């Protein structure tokens, strides 16, 4: 029964992560901690984070391949952002060592609340009129409409470092911050922002996973159960992204994240 639950956790986390460019860890890590609190798994926050990052590699590969076929990945921007997110992931892994189970749940709960807030307000933000940037890109969608977007490299690298650090610290993709920033600040077309975010998450997850594996923070038995769902979830999320608006799913995700956050904060608070 537990293994079936893990397969479903991998699938749901990867589907949501691929659909919105989040990475899936925002679902996987709290789910693993919840199963541990119910005594269904024996797992520490460090193992939950490390295992989540390994799963995100699989999600990232399957989703990126699907987005490559749709020709919505901005490889040059993704590689530039990775120059900062990669080192950030290593820093986040180092910071993660200082958490015990209770303090991690408390801090992670507040972080998830912050992510929920970002998801609530992102639809109310509209990008300012585009002005010429130092680095510019052009994207032509399947209808033949051309979009010009761009950014300055310094703020882009600073944001990428923060995203990478959060990935290594909490085992999440960081796309919940990166996707809105790319759309609002850098004027990325939404589909390009999500696809490029998944490409960046893939690269950052590889670096973060290597760091956590070196520290022994990976439970391969659990990963074996999560992997099948994560692979098909990554493909499913990319397919849904192409065909449907994600607003209804975003609304459900907001509610679920708030519930998860409040539970983590409560459990962390009563034992701190």
UniProtKB/TrEMBL annotation:
It is found in: Cell membrane; Membrane. It holds the Pfam family TauE. Signal peptide: none annotated. The chain crosses the membrane at residues 7-35, 47-67, 79-97, 103-125, 146-163, 193-214, 220-240, 249-266. It is a multi-pass membrane protein. The keyword Repeat does not apply. It comes from the Bacteria. Its main location: membrane. Keywords: Cell membrane, Membrane, Transmembrane, Transmembrane helix. Belongs to the 4-toluene sulfonate uptake permease (TSUP) (TC 2.A.102) family. This is Probable membrane transporter protein.
């Amino acid at each position: 029964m537990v293994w079936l639950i893990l397969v479903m956790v991998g699938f749901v986390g990867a589907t949501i992560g691929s659909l919105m460019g989040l990475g899936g860890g925002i679902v996987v890590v709290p789910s693993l901690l919840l199963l541990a609190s119910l005594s269904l798994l024996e797992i520490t926050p460090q193992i939950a984070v490390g295992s989540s990052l390994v799963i995100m590699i699989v999600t990232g590969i399957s989703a990126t391949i699907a987005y490559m076929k749709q020709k919505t990945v901005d490889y040059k921007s993704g590689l530039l952002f990775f120059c900062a997110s990669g080192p950030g992931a290593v820093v986040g892994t180092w910071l993660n060592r200082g958490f015990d189970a209770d303090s991690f749940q408390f801090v992670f709960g507040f972080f998830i609340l912050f992510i929920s807030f970002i998801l609530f307000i992102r639809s109310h933000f509209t990008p300012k009129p585009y002005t010429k940037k130092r680095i510019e890109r052009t994207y032509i969608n399947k209808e033949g409409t051309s979009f010009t977007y761009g950014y300055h490299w310094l703020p882009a690298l600073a944001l990428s470092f923060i995203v990478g650090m959060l990935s290594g610290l909490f085992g999440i993709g960081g796309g919940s911050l990166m996707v809105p920033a790319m759309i609002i600040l850098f004027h990325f077309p939404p589909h390009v922002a999500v696809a490029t975010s998944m490409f960046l998450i893939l690269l950052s997850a590889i670096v973060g996973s290597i760091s956590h594996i070196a520290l022994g923070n990976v439970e391969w038995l659990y990963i074996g159960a999560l992997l099948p769902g994560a692979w098909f979830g990554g493909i499913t999320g990319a397919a849904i992204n192409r065909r449907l608006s994600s607003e209804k799913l975003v609304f459900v995700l907001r509610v679920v994240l708030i519930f998860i956050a409040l539970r983590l904060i409560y459990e962390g608070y009563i034992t701190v």
